[in-house]
TrEMBL record:
<dbReference type="InterPro" id="IPR011701">
    <property type="entry name" value="MFS"/>
</dbReference>
<feature type="transmembrane region" description="Helical">
    <location>
        <begin position="132"/>
        <end position="151"/>
    </location>
</feature>
<dbReference type="InterPro" id="IPR051788">
    <property type="entry name" value="MFS_Transporter"/>
</dbReference>
<keyword id="KW-0472">Membrane</keyword>
<feature type="transmembrane region" description="Helical">
    <location>
        <begin position="326"/>
        <end position="344"/>
    </location>
</feature>
<feature type="transmembrane region" description="Helical">
    <location>
        <begin position="245"/>
        <end position="263"/>
    </location>
</feature>
<feature type="transmembrane region" description="Helical">
    <location>
        <begin position="163"/>
        <end position="185"/>
    </location>
</feature>
<feature type="transmembrane region" description="Helical">
    <location>
        <begin position="293"/>
        <end position="314"/>
    </location>
</feature>
<protein>
    <recommendedName>
        <fullName>Major facilitator superfamily (MFS) profile domain-containing protein</fullName>
    </recommendedName>
</protein>
<dbReference type="GO" id="GO:0022857">
    <property type="term" value="F:transmembrane transporter activity"/>
</dbReference>
<feature type="transmembrane region" description="Helical">
    <location>
        <begin position="42"/>
        <end position="62"/>
    </location>
</feature>
<feature type="transmembrane region" description="Helical">
    <location>
        <begin position="74"/>
        <end position="92"/>
    </location>
</feature>
<keyword id="KW-0813">Transport</keyword>
<feature type="transmembrane region" description="Helical">
    <location>
        <begin position="364"/>
        <end position="384"/>
    </location>
</feature>
<feature type="transmembrane region" description="Helical">
    <location>
        <begin position="270"/>
        <end position="287"/>
    </location>
</feature>
<feature type="domain" description="Major facilitator superfamily (MFS) profile">
    <location>
        <begin position="1"/>
        <end position="386"/>
    </location>
</feature>
<dbReference type="InterPro" id="IPR020846">
    <property type="entry name" value="MFS_dom"/>
</dbReference>
Length: 406
């Protein structure tokens, strides 16, 4: 099917519905604790967090699967694995089996996580690429929001039945299988390939962006970790109020995703520094709030700004990666992102001890300042890159003109 058709694009974007679906069952932790009284609270919490470990490992391994299976079959394998393992807890009430199935769910998502982004950067360019990248982020937010709401609904029928939400994976599996046709000669051993495929590699710019993303996500995730604590410490709300506040972060991400292409047309490379600055300012609003309404406002500002910055990093990695290495480079970026989220509590604890700032408000202050500094750094680096690209283009044009004159 033509890559410019609606069905092709919709099917390609649909696989992002389950990219961030792992935490959708987090609200079930107290109910699971009752079913497994012999397990500690931290062990039960692993059921919600262990998919991240699966994603982290299989994002790195996905490139091996791509080489032998091709991109389409790798996506279909990942979706099938996520579907089957996601539904296992519905039928088996055994802690070890459920924990293993959750890891395998993450493994399935990890197989196609990088491809959900790199396929867009490989197949499209310019404003069309920007629009689809925004929609890709929106699809993740939509999937997360819908599945979280469905978990709440299915809870009345027992916590195990809440895992039925992962049956939604059938939709992208069917759409991708039926309507997405990728370029031929994807496999290394493809006898029909006439040209030798270049080996994928990672350059210094990709590693630098990975570390940059690690820090950004580690600082941003403070909003998830500390909002409930902030409400209690300041006496302006209860922990359960944090759920609806954080929900606003996801919802505004959907809105930004839909209009991302148009926003990118206006702001171009300024999207990243403006986004990081906005997150930092949102954090400052949150820490200075004296009501739930102001905390929600700060969360919305941060969510909007984050939805600007995140897609741009995925677009950028496709531009700076070595030739034919977009998928590997995207995988490296995803490793940085997952490490950033995983290490966020550790990094926050380290900063708190280093600067002697221990309250939730202090955490928002440190992260806010850090994000504002990162905004300034990104502006400088992107400006230097733009100038360098312009000089390179001038040199190439000069060489071309000289050859034509000769």
């Amino acid at each position: 099917m033509n890559k410019n058709s609606f069905l092709f694009k919709a099917s390609l974007l649909s696989i992002s519905l389950v990219l961030v679906a792992g935490p959708a069952v987090s609200s079930l932790i107290p109910l699971m604790q009752q079913s497994f009284p012999d397990q500690s609270t931290s062990s039960i919490e692993l059921i919600a967090t262990v998919p991240n470990f699966g994603i982290l490992i299989f994002v790195l391994l996905s490139n091996i699967f791509v080489k032998f299976l091709g991109k389409k079959k790798t996506v279909l394998l990942g979706l099938s694995l996520a579907l089957i393992s996601g539904l296992i807890p519905v039928f088996i009430e055994n802690y070890t089996v459920i924990l293993a199935s959750r890891f395998m769910f993450g493994a399935g998502v990890g197989l196609f996580n990088a491809l959900a982004v790199s396929l867009i950067t490989e197949l499209y360019s310019g404003d069309e690429q920007a629009s689809l990248m925004g929609l890709q982020g929106a699809m993740g937010s939509i999937g997360s929001t819908v599945m979280t709401l469905l978990v709440g609904y299915f809870t009345k029928f027992g916590w195990q039945n809440s895992f039925l939400v992962y049956a939604i994976t059938v939709l992208p599996l069917a759409l991708f299988a039926l309507f997405v046709t990728l370029p031929a000669a994807e496999k290394l051993d493809d006898p029909t390939a006439n040209t030798k495929k270049e080996k994928e590699s990672v350059n210094g710019a990709t590693i630098g962006l990975m570390l940059f993303a690690l820090i950004v996500y580690a600082l941003f995730f403070v909003i998830m970790l500390k909002t409930a604590t902030l409400l209690v410490e300041t006496g302006i709300g209860k922990p359960e109020t944090a759920a609806s506040i954080l929900g606003s972060v996801t919802i505004v991400g959907i809105v930004v995703g839909v209009f991302y292409g148009q926003i990118f047309k206006w702001l171009k490379q300024l999207v990243l520094p403006i986004g990081l600055l906005g997150i930092g300012l949102g954090f400052i609003i949150i820490l200075s709030a004296n009501s739930v309404a102001i905390v929600t406002l700060g969360a919305i500002v941060s969510g909007l700004a984050f939805s600007l910055a995140a897609p741009f990093m995925f677009m950028l990695v496709g531009q700076i990666a070595p030739k034919n290495s977009a998928n590997l480079a995207t995988g490296v970026l995803l490793v940085g992102i997952n490490l950033g989220v995983f290490l966020s509590p550790t990094i926050n604890s380290f900063l708190s001890k280093t600067f002697g700032m221990t309250t939730a408000s202090d955490s928002f202050l440190m992260s806010g300042i850090g994000l504002i500094l990162l905004s300034a750094c990104s502006f400088i680096l992107l400006s230097v890159q733009k100038k360098k690209n312009a000089q390179t283009a001038i040199q190439e044009d000069t060489i071309k003109i000289r050859k034509e004159d000769a």
